[in-house]
Amino acid sequence: MAVTALSRPDDVCLRLTAVQAVDALLPYCEDTPQLLHSITEASIAALFRLANDCDEVESRSSCLDLLSNIITYVSCTGGLLSTELLNSIVAPLSTIWENVDGQNLLLRRNVLSILACVASFVGPDEATALYPLALPLIDDSFGREENVFLVDEALKIWWVFLQLSKGYDPLLGKLYLRAPALSKDLEHVKVLMRITEYYIILGKEGFLNDHATTIQSVLCNIVGEVSPRGTAYVGLVLEALLRLFPSEGGKLLDSCGIADKFLEACAHNYFGIDSCDPDRVIVIYMTALARISLANPAFLQNKLSITLQAGTFGHSQLVDLFVKRFQVAGNGAHGLLFESLWGMLLISFYPPSHTIALTNSVLEKANEIFGAFVYLLKNVSRDGSNLLSYEVECDDDEEKIDRDTCAYDVLLQEQAARDKLHSSNFSHQLTEKLNGLGAALGNDDYGRFLSTLDSTILQQLQEMLAN
């Protein structure tokens, strides 16, 4: 009866009451999906007619909300929508968008919601057919002051289309030109960082070539300006960028001053200066610095030192900070990954090495560093399979987007396999370095170096490397 009432041409009040009734009944249709599927076509046509007949924006919006909900429930219950019906849903949307003003601008939120539902319904194979309609509307949501209330909804639908992409499409990529302006509002940082990360792992070289300077602008607006939780999301972008592009990504971060911000934050943390970033933030920065330095061994040698009122932060202090924060780096499922990166960096500082200025520092801290090496040899599997990629646990109260974790996980696994860390044998690198250490130092200095090492740690290291 409610569906029949929707179609009555005379009584708008009765039809609006029917909208409320159908909306309330939708959850029960999960048990009787055939009923929902049988009334879908008639209901959608009736809802568009009713939205057109109503004068009040709240009433028109409720009609379009119900339309979105019907599409969602049909999808959830395995129903089908014909191409003809889908076209009839999409066709009026641009007209609604363009022909509203004043309070009726609120209907643009409904238009975005319907587009997101249709895109999710048709899936990756057909979502690109919606680009000519959807992408200009998303762009318009970010570009006009009258649409400022649409930003959250537009970010959601942008994310929907991005997750449905089977590969990088420059048309979808053009939307990222809006990211620098959006990043100035720190409220959107978490969603924007997820979008940026996904673009990088999806678009690879194509996206980086198109948007290197855009990424720089976004990170310059955010790094050092957000809470520790916000920085955790920045870490997603840093890992994606430096995992895929260790050299190019490092140069990108260095040339815009981001790497300098990391080092300055490390210096403040080392000296315990008031309002310095906490350890969990510094660990993210130090891991990025480790990735950059492994790809460009001369990087840190050229960057330090930093002079503060509290003292000078030079090569010795940096090595000391890597040693002191090693245990903190191990927190979380990705902890072994971070610690392994740090371990590889510290190995690279030992002679023979390109980073001569750091050599004395690692020789002085050898007991603590070799203790970390023993820990890694004990805990990291030989094939690196327990080195889990960096991730931020989703908090439903914070994140305003739904995530297709299956598609994301597949992409992440594919690209984790390209990570330099996974293709490197930590044990082999350490053995080679130790074998070359004697020749690099000379017999006398090498003998003095060994005499400073804790005999238990040295024995454990030798036994583990022998196996």
Strand content: under 5%
Element pattern in H and E? HHHHHHHHHHHHHHHHHHEEHHHHHHHHH
* Class based on secondary structure composition and strand pairing: mainly alpha
Main sheet strand line-up: 1-2
Instruction: Give me the Rg, rounded.
Output: 28 Å
Give the total of beta strands: 2
Question: Stretches where pLDDT falls below 50 for ≥5 residues?
Answer: none
- The geometry reads as elongated
Mean pLDDT over all positions: 88
Query: Span from first to last CA?
Result: 77 Å
Number of helices: 27
Share of helical residues: over 70%
For the sheet with most strands, the description reads: 2 strands, antiparallel
In summary, what is this structure?
This protein is mainly α. It is built from 27 helices and two strands.
